[in-house]
Design goal:
Layout lengths: L15 E2 L6 E2 L9 H10 L2 H9 L2 H4 L13
Antiparallel strand pairs: 1-2
């Protein structure tokens, strides 16, 4: 079974589509703070999170339950 997860960090000045009208809003029309998203992205793609994900299940099941596309292996 393959179940792929991805992380996407939206640029602060990216154009958005209105959920009400479906029309594209100009770049910069939505004021968002991307600081928390960038911190989360950096943590999730770092060594510590990669090791946590790669080693998840090793103790209980005898092998890793997840493999990372980055090549990090338990």
């Amino acid at each position: 079974m393959k179940n792929t997860y991805s992380i996407l960090c939206v640029k602060k000045d990216a154009p958005f589509v209105s959920s009400i009208t479906g029309e594209a809003l100009p770049a910069g029309a939505v004021d968002i703070d991307t600081t928390a998203a960038e911190v989360f992205l950096n943590w999730m793609t770092g060594e510590h999170a990669s090791a946590l994900i790669a080693y998840y299940g090793v103790t209980k099941y005898g092998g890793s339950l997840f493999t990372l596309d980055t090549g990090y292996r338990a």
